[in-house]
Amino acid sequence: MQTRLNSILKEERPVKQRASWRQYLIELERGFAQIIRSDSVFFFHTFCLTIVLTCSFILGLSMMEWAMVVLSCTLAISAEMFNKVLKAIWDNLGHHFSEAAQNSIRIGTASATLTLIGASITVGIILGHRLWELLH
């Protein structure tokens, strides 16, 4: 009886292959969940993004202003994600490279910071201008 039970448990069940678009969506969701859980910086970015989108909605931005706000926020978060990937690669494979290769981490961090500053200024100008129009 035990042998039969072991053979039943060891049988491989057929694994359903998901459609490629569905698998892509699953990987997308897992990636976002992992990045938000693994780094408090991304939780802070998500919090700030929520504030920016709420203020944009309350101030009643035009379609062009919405496009610029969304593009700025998306660009800043993407740059941070690429920087996180670069750091993860360096942490796992960095011992194979020379110390001079660590410049790539510094450049990636500078790039992400510059993108974040540019996005913040752009969003600040848009929201500030709209607030100025509403108050005057």
From TrEMBL:
Residues forming the catalytic site: 80 (proton acceptor)
GO biological process: phospholipid biosynthetic process
Transmembrane regions listed in the UniProt entry: 40-60, 66-86, 107-127
Membrane topology: Multi-pass membrane protein
Lineage: superkingdom: Bacteria
GO molecular function annotation: ATP binding; kinase activity
The entry's keywords: ATP-binding, Cell membrane, Kinase, Lipid biosynthesis, Lipid metabolism, Membrane, Nucleotide-binding, Phospholipid biosynthesis, Phospholipid metabolism, Transferase, Transmembrane, Transmembrane helix
Binding site for substrate: 80
Localization of this protein: Cell membrane
GO cellular component: plasma membrane
Main location: membrane
Coiled coil: none
Family indicated by similarity: Belongs to the bacterial diacylglycerol kinase family.
Name the record gives this protein: Prokaryotic diacylglycerol kinase
Lineage: Bacteria, Pseudomonadati, Planctomycetota, Planctomycetia, Planctomycetales
